[in-house]
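Thread title: Can someone regenerate the structure for this chain?

I was given the following input by a collaborator and told the matching structure tokens would be attached. They weren't. Posting the sequence so someone can regenerate them.
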Amino acid sequence: MSSANQTVDRPWGPLEYDDSAATELARECQLHPVLARLLIQRGITTAQQANEFLEPKLTNLLEPDVIPDIDQAVEMIFTVREVQGKIAIYGDYDVDGISGTAILLEMLGHLGVETVYRLSDRIKEGYGFHVQAVDELAEQGVDLIITVDGGSNDVAALRRTQELGLEVIVTDHHRIDETLEGIPLVHPGRADRPSPSLGLCGAGVAYKLAWALAKEAAGGGKVDNRTRDLLVELLGFTALGTVADVVPLVGENRIIVRQGLRAIAATQRPGLAALMDTCRINRSVLSAIDIGFRIAPHLNAAGRLGDASEALELLLTDDPARASELAAKLARLNRERREIEKVMTQECIEEMKQGLHPESGPIVFAREGWHPGVAGIVANRVVDRVHRPVWVLCIDGETARGSGRSIDELPLSDLYPVMGPVVEKVGGHRAAGGMTIRTDRIEQLKQVLADQQASMADAEQIPPRRYDLELSPGEINLELADALESLAPFGAANRQPVFCIRGLRLEGTPRLVGAAEEHVQVKFRADGASIGAIWFRGAGRARELTEGGEMTIVANLTVNHFRGRNAQLQIVDRIPDDE
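Best answer:
Regenerated them for you:
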């Protein structure tokens, strides 16, 4: 029976694949059979596609001019440079906006342009380009404002730039609802001028603009070595935004992240180096997962609980002492964020246990005293339990601001149109969004969403989660784990492969590990071999591993680099015996 008052179990089922096509691809490309099956599942069916996917090259990045208005933006920027004017970069407060802002500040500085910057304030302002920001930048005497990761629909602020006689360029990747004539919109998702670079994040669009500026400075020809080195280095910042913003890691984004990880691993920048040391990251095996779960949360913590500009300063500083100071501060803020998140999540769970929310359809939590900087993470934690859209709103007087999350099968973006007439502002992506609403309209919002319940899947109708393939215990080895690493970087549209493994028996007693003993380390035995495994955040379910004889789990297969190199399972779930 489904209920919003308890964790909803989503069953597991296999993805399908064409076995004959996989066999042929494995033969033609000399691939591990499991790797070939996974490629076929991802729609990669030819040898050329496989080679391009497994070896993403910088030369396959599309030229910047495939993005609308980028040439006009370059011309405007060089016009300001020629008159020795000042350019302001206005970025969003998240990792995507911060890294995109860093990219343009670095390139413009390299080209000798005077720059200032401003980041939106998550707590006081929320997402977007604001009139107040325009006024502040005008007082600083800027001639041109470039937005990063936002601005597409912020007509009031854009009109204000026109009133003040300021030039403005919008660079963005979010859904476009409303535009203003006469303002360059550097955006790969424009309906009037579709771009093959669709899918880039805000930092990706900023990188393409930086690249276009470098080409223009070189007279349209080959850039000099110093500029080329900077462009390669800035791929590291681009990778940060690309992974953190959870855009599809295919096509250009895959190239950006694969090459950007190399740039980050080799960086001499004190800030990134200090942050990786703080996060205890081994640069030699740096992965997109390290960005998503370690680096990005620290950078985001600045904007969530403090000042996002401190994360930007960390990326840009040349001072090792300042870098260490900032890295330590971000680590402290991230620990504080975790504690706030834990309390808010538990309060949401308590509301569900008390039956205060509907048993199907979207859920809206709203409370005074909650921290808006953590709302999105809390919403994500609750979604993991109920597998349907969740909004967490933080009430501050007459206004509430918050974030929403959902599962892929129930896009949050489907709700934006029906929410529009009730809220002050709403928008975002399929799986994540933000909202501002008058407090006295929250109950109306709940009713509007409840009216949509018929079109939303209830708990019984939620589609199963899918594992990629079933593996026998005997197939789990270092050779396969190594082969799987060629599929990285993992993320949206290219998830880390998930396998179903049956016939496992517990070897010894599971051990709780981690600073808060939140993870479970375990060993299994099957087919005469011992298989190491870890279940991150699995402490609450450790008892399930000691119940019964043979068990079936769903897990990732990775290479554990601790004390050598060994194949290791990362448990995702235990499948009940009757499933």
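The chain has four domains: 22-55, 63-246, 357-461, 465-579.
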